[in-house]
Specification:
- This protein is an alpha+beta fold and about 350 residues long.
- The protein is built from 9 helices and 18 strands.
Length: about 350
């Protein structure tokens, strides 16, 4: 295993707008990085360049002391010692589970008892030992996904690439597969790069998150750092639930905000209007707060999700342990937030 580095990588397909623009990124050895962003932001193109399916227009991709790709050339995928899990699983329908898992070994000339032992070990990691003789058509979506993971594990790759692997699964299967991915990462020790537009998946799985927008890298940090201290409106709007309020100087002394740090921040910017990211858990019912219009109250099991609106027309979210009638005015205060 080795550190993976992207140095000022760009990709232009000749459309007049670069799909990926000047992305510099280091994936630490044994780390689990999520590339997070909306459709069309360039995250899958980055993954395909790492895999060797696309060549960078500019910049370089380095694994350890090997240059995998730059503007002058690209090492073919089969020489990169990487494994990829596709959204469609990409299993051979005519092969058994064991044959699918062992196919990378067959290509490398591994046969006999060694082949059988390594396939058995890989299936044990994903808890599919009893399914070795079945065909993919006989498996559920979650089981097929685990076969694809076992196929990655059997070849001992330096890097495992995952392209939205949970997109086709329902919510309950996703939760089960997230646990499988965590176990897989712990067992394999491989560096993993996971493309997703689902922030919940990224938060649950990754040790680091790289947020992309319009081909550019916006922020790279741990899930906790991304959630608590996003850099700018784009990241703040993409990660976690919340709302971005534009606060003027007068708001710092109103009953809207009960947070001393805001007053300091406004003094430092001479009272200019500042965007404030507010998470639902930081909006608290308070008789001394200001009145918000309750526009929606949705039961979520252990709590109610509220949609609120200020007198100035700005919306935000909150949580409540009890139902609140829509259309009523209720007092709330913001206890915390993050100035963007």
């Amino acid at each position: 295993m080795a550190k993976l580095t992207l140095n000022h990588v760009s990709k232009d397909f000749g459309t007049g707008r670069a799909a990926v623009c000047d992305v510099s990124l280091t994936v630490r050895e044994g780390g689990f990085l999520a590339l997070l962003g909306p459709s069309g932001c360039g995250k899958t193109t980055v993954l395909r360049m790492i895999a060797g399916f696309e060549q960078p227009t500019d910049g370089s991709i380095i694994l350890g002391d090997r240059t995998l790709a730059d503007a002058n050339g690209s090492l073919p995928p089969e020489k990169r010692n990487m494994a990829m899990v596709f959204q469609s699983y990409a299993l051979w329908p005519h092969m058994t589970v064991a044959q699918n898992v062992g196919y990378p070994l067959k290509v490398r000339g591994v046969t006999g008892a060694v082949w059988e032992a390594r396939v058995k070990d890989a299936l044990a990691v994903v808890r599919l030992e009893d399914f070795a003789g079945r065909r993919p058509a006989d498996l559920s979506g979650g089981q097929r996904q685990r076969v694809a993971l076992a196929r990655c594990l059997v070849s001992s790759p330096d890097v495992v690439l995952l392209d939205e692997p949970l997109a086709n699964l329902d919510r309950h299967l996703k939760a089960a597969m997230e646990e499988t991915f965590r176990e897989f990462h712990a067992c394999s020790g491989a560096t993993m790069i996971y493309v997703t537009h689902d922030q919940g998946e990224a938060m649950a799985l990754a040790t680091d998150i790289a947020v992309m927008s319009e081909g550019r890298l916006m922020q790279v940090a741990s899930p906790e750092e991304i959630y608590a201290r996003p850099q700018g409106r784009v990241v703040g709007g993409l990660v976690g639930q919340g709302a971005i309020l534009d606060l003027a100087l007068a708001d710092r002394s109103s009953r809207l905000v009960s947070w001393p740090a805001i007053e300091t921040a406004f003094r430092q910017t001479a009272g200019a209007s500042r965007p404030l990211l507010v998470r639902p858990e930081h909006v608290i019912a308070d008789p001394e707060g200001i009145l918000f219009q309750v526009e929606a109250c949705v039961f979520e099991g252990e709590r109610f999700a509220l949609s609120l609106r200020t007198a100035g027309g700005q919306g935000l979210k909150a949580h409540s342990v009890a139902a609140i009638s829509c259309g009523t005015l209720q007092p709330f205060v913001i206890r915390q937030g993050w100035l963007l």
